[in-house]
Design a protein that fits this description.
Length: about 350
């Protein structure tokens, strides 16, 4: 098949890990008989420096008409001043909005060979293989009104609004159930229905959606209970679906299970148009340019790109198995206790492809 893929290397270690994932995609295309057209565009801090905008029109236009977008990372100390009118993160937020992606998918799988790296006891992380589906465009981060005001006599008051419509909940719930069909047939919906009206609506709509998937087990969990269970019994989760803020917190907690942020990928999807794929780690400016960044998260994001945007499941599995074989063989960067360079790991993964 032919596919147009836009690379957004971004800032810090973004270019290093993105180009590692690019090399793996090129190898996959060669070995499976595909043609991937890969073009790089600026986003984030480098785009501000070069074009005056964190998301130049040329970059967005290329992404909009592509089949998929692979992002490295954005941000860094150079652009951290909160007084700046243009910040790298605005480029990512505007890109998500422009592509109309509303579901953030974060798989958390603990490779057996890396289980000892987790801060939790090995018995708590062996067998962990979950997918968190986080609603990305609603909830308290986007609700209105949102303001801060001074109070008479001194002091201040701040207001944020947590808002969801039944349509927003229904579409994310449907995606979670569809994804569970290809996994272990279980969905855990996380809310705070004992306190929040928005969560009561969330639970009601999820129950309605579940009726259309009789073969899938549904359980509801309060967010505090889910957070505790992620530490104690993470392997019991299959697909977790939750709202924006809860998902933001729980995915960061779940990321600790794997032992390093460097091995975890993510995808942001909508109903149509290109998906946006990126490792969950940041730009890590302290190690940028040294050739020691862990490319596994970016490479596994490329695997998700193959699976979800290109519908190439065999190729996605090939990448994932190659990553595991490379890790077992000892191709590990410093964050995984090894001495391999970014290039070493990339070449090991390519060498392990079928």
């Amino acid at each position: 098949m032919k596919a147009d893929i836009v690379l957004l290397p971004g800032d810090g270690i973004g270019p290093e890990v993105t180009f590692a994932a690019r090399d793996v995609l090129i190898a996959v295309a060669e070995r499976f008989g595909h043609r991937f057209e890969l073009v790089s565009k600026d986003v984030g801090g480098v785009a501000i420096d070069a074009h005056g905008e964190p998301l130049p029109a040329d970059t967005f236009d290329a992404c909009r008409v592509s089949d998929a977008v692979l992002l490295g990372a954005v941000g860094g100390p150079k652009w951290d001043d909160p007084r700046l009118k243009r910040r790298p993160e605005q480029g990512l937020l505007n890109l998500r909005a422009g592509l109309q992606v509303y579901a953030n998918l974060r798989p958390v799988k603990v490779f057996p060979c890396l289980a000892d790296l987790s801060p939790l006891k090995k018995e708590h992380v062996v067998g962990v293989d979950m997918l968190v589906v986080r609603e990305l465009t609603g909830g308290i981060y986007f609700g209105a009104p949102k303001f801060r005001e001074a109070l008479p006599g001194g002091g201040a008051r701040a207001v944020d609004t947590l808002e969801y419509t039944d349509g927003e909940v229904r579409r994310i719930a449907k995606m979670a159930f569809e994804l569970a069909r290809g996994r272990r047939q279980k969905v855990t919906s996380v809310d705070k229905a004992n306190v929040l009206e928005s969560s009561r609506l969330w639970r009601q709509v999820v129950d309605e959606v579940a009726k259309g998937y009789p073969g899938i087990v549904l359980e509801h969990r309060l967010v505090d209970s889910a957070a505790m269970r992620l530490v104690m019994e993470a392997s019991s989760f299959d697909v977790i679906v939750t709202e924006n803020m809860f998902g933001d917190i729980l995915t960061d907690e779940a990321a600790v299970l794997a032992g390093s942020l460097g091995v975890l990928p993510s995808a942001s999807l909508g109903d149509s148009g290109p998906g946006l794929y990126e490792p969950i780690h940041g730009s890590a400016p302290d190690i940028a340019g040294r050739g020691i960044a862990n490319p596994v998260g970016a490479i596994l994001s490329a695997a998700m790109l193959c699976r979800h945007s290109l519908k190439l499941d065999e190729e996605a599995l090939a990448i994932e198995h190659a990553v595991e074989r490379a890790l077992i063989a000892g191709a590990r960067t410093a964050d995984l206790g090894g001495k391999a360079t970014t290039r070493d790991v990339t070449q090991a993964v390519i060498g392990a492809l079928p």
